[in-house]
């Protein structure tokens, strides 16, 4: 209140409590002018030093221009400008990647810091509730740094003392829309500091054609699509188990088929065996010839095939006991990948109780003991609720495609995944825009990453069958 009143007006301010004769008159202390001047000068100096530290290049450029002009006049500035722009043009032509890294993205970050983040910082913080207005003063989180790359802005912020990461992750929609982005991810940089990621464009907006079949035999990680920063998405299949959850039409099939595609050379070399359970008969049956005798559709046959995989696993475990602790794929001991489409058909929705128990216990045995001996399970599932898939936590790696309800996101990816930006319930149901898009938690990073699997079309599968059916058999 006092801040808004100029000088002596405060002295005349008088207030009384209603119905009493008590009068309040503020005591006004005169501040000597010298103190005001010293404080003002100190703030100017601190501002200058901060400007120099935060924007050393920009400040040096301005200083150089002023110095050149003063010492040698405007022609010197013109010559310097021409020399500089032609050297930059030469650099751009010779090595675009390094030019982008050192010049383009930095200039873009400088511009976006000023034009997007600095300009909108106060209103967005106050409206979203992340800033505080106390006793006439605004307390705002500090905008520390803005970095850009080809697809996103990464904004480092210092939280207000006493704020929690959840305060921010609860407001990702306010932040995204406030700063003109479609989404926002929150990651902890270090104590008190967060990195907010705001995508500027979406490389996953259009379907990705099937990844070319690798030339060399490898058990992975298998390249099956693209991450949202445009880098290849490689899925680890050997030494883990993968659960893919997504509503009907979310594109679970493209994860299964892209994985098969990436493993075909290894299968032909005898390093991988692909086993398939296809209770719906709508997905894996299309490339059935690739699986040879290791394909089953009726639940009873699925149970037999699962138990056969358990036998392989136990036989290996007996042989490895005391000699080795991990599996290296060889022709004698190939990596066995059990692909299961719509696993709930075999577990929750199976009316035959005996079969259901056999299948569930075989799956639980494989997922708890199969990793170390080279037997993996990759299962697709529509409904991730516990009563439908009570062994979902036995899968170390999970992928959340389009889901019907927001609560299902944390069921698949673990607590807090949605708060950290895994908005799987908001993926578009339009197949062209949303099918195959999902969120994963990569091994090295607890924050969810948005990915899209490549679309393996029917003609791709036919070509795969024509080239690889029967390959790797009879070894
Ligand atoms: N990666 C992808 N990119 C683009 N479009 C895709 C992708 N995957 C699937 N689609 C499209 O989405 C449709 C549904 O895909 P798919 O059958 O794989 O979904 P699903 O999750 O297996 O569904 P359901 O559980 O009902 O079998 C496909 O017909 C295809 O047109």
Automatic annotation (TrEMBL):
**Positions that bind ATP:** 246-253
Q: Which residues form the FtsK domain?
A: 230-410
- List where this protein forms a coiled coil: none
> Transmembrane ranges?
20-42, 49-69, 75-94
Ribosomal protein as UniProt keyword: no
Superkingdom of origin: Bacteria
Keywords annotated in UniProt: ATP-binding, Membrane, Nucleotide-binding, Transmembrane, Transmembrane helix
Please tell me whether the keyword NAD is annotated for this protein: no
Q: Name one Pfam family in it.
A: FtsK_SpoIIIE
Q: What is this protein called?
A: FtsK/SpoIIIE domain-containing protein
Species of provenance:
Sphaerisporangium rhizosphaerae
């Amino acid at each position: 209140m006092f801040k808004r009143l100029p000088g002596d007006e405060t002295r005349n301010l008088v207030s009384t409590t209603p119905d009493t004769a008590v009068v309040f008159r503020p005591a006004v202390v005169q501040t000597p002018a010298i103190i005001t001047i010293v404080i003002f000068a100190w703030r100017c100096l601190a501002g200058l030093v901060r400007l120099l530290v935060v924007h050393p290049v920009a400040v040096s450029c301005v200083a150089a221009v002023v110095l050149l002009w003063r010492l040698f006049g405007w022609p010197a500035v013109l010559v310097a400008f021409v020399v500089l722009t032609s050297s930059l043009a030469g650099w751009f032509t010779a090595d675009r990647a390094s030019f982008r890294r050192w010049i383009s993205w930095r200039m873009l970050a400088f511009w976006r810091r000023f034009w997007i983040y600095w300009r909108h910082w106060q209103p967005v913080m106050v409206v979203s509730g992340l800033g505080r207005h106390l006793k006439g003063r605004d307390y705002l989180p500090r905008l520390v740094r803005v970095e850009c790359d080809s697809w996103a802005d990464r904004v480092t912020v210092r939280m207000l003392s006493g704020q929690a990461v959840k305060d921010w992750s609860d407001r990702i929609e306010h932040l995204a829309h406030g700063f003109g982005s479609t989404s926002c991810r929150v990651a902890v940089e270090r104590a008190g500091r967060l990195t907010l990621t705001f995508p500027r464009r979406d490389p996953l907006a259009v379907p990705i054609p099937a990844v070319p079949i690798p030339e060399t035999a490898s058990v992975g990680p298998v390249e099956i699509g693209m991450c949202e920063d445009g880098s290849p998405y490689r899925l680890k299949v050997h030494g883990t188990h993968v659960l893919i959850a997504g509503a009907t039409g979310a594109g679970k099939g493209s994860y299964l088929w892209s994985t098969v595609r990436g493993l075909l050379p290894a299968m032909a070399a005898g390093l991988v065996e692909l086993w398939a359970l296809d209770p719906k008969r709508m997905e894996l049956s299309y490339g059935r010839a690739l699986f040879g005798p290791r394909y089953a559709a009726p639940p009873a046959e699925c149970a037999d095939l699962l138990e056969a995989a358990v036998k392989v696993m136990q036989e290996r475990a007996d042989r490895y006991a005391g000699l080795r602790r991990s599996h290296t794929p060889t022709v004698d001991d190939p990596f066995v990948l059990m692909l299961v489409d719509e696993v709930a058909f075999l577990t929750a929705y199976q009316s035959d109780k005996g079969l259901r128990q056999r299948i569930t216990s075989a799956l639980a045995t494989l997922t708890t003991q199969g990793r170390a001996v080279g037997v993996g399970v990759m299962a697709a599932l529509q409904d991730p609720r516990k009563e439908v898939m009570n062994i979902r936590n036995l899968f170390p790696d999970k992928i959340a495609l389009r889901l019907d309800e927001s609560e299902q996101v944390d069921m698949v990816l673990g607590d807090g995944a949605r708060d950290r930006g895994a908005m799987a319930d908001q993926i578009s149901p339009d197949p062209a825009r949303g099918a195959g898009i999902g969120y994963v938690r990569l091994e090295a990073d607890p924050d969810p990453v948005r990915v899209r699997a490549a679309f393996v079309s029917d003609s791709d599968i036919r070509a795969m069958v024509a080239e690889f059916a029967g390959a790797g058999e009879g070894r």
